[in-house]
Automatic annotation (TrEMBL):
Pfam families: Glyoxalase_6 (PF18029). This is VOC family protein. It comes from Altererythrobacter litoralis. It comes from the Bacteria. Residues 1-124 form the VOC domain. PROSITE patterns: VOC. Coiled coil: none annotated.
Amino acid sequence: MHIVVTIDVPDLDQGIAFYRDALGFEERVRPLPNFVIMTNGKARIGLMQKDAGTRPAPGSDDIRDYGRHWTPVHADFHVEEFEETLAAIVRAGGRAEQKAGGGALPDVAFCSDPFGHGFCLIGPRPEAS
């Protein structure tokens, strides 16, 4: 089994640019004009273009809103180069909203992409002394 977490974005090219520039993902396959699978090592994500204001499912009263929002499911990106990756996220248009960790805990940053989706950036676990 493998898993691909798919992220809705209002602009596919902008989504590809963010996840490439911020987190090092590369486009691998585009099975549909509005859907791309990107990889970084063994990690895979899908990006699917869905317009703001559209309904996520038939009969739903919800509409897609790409302002900053909370969701009960989010991605955690574990990286070796924490500070460098965090800076790349901000340069690429994401937000670093809060940092935590240190000491015996890995550095963690609570972030969001340019489309309002929250995610965590997690650095390496400090080595025991």
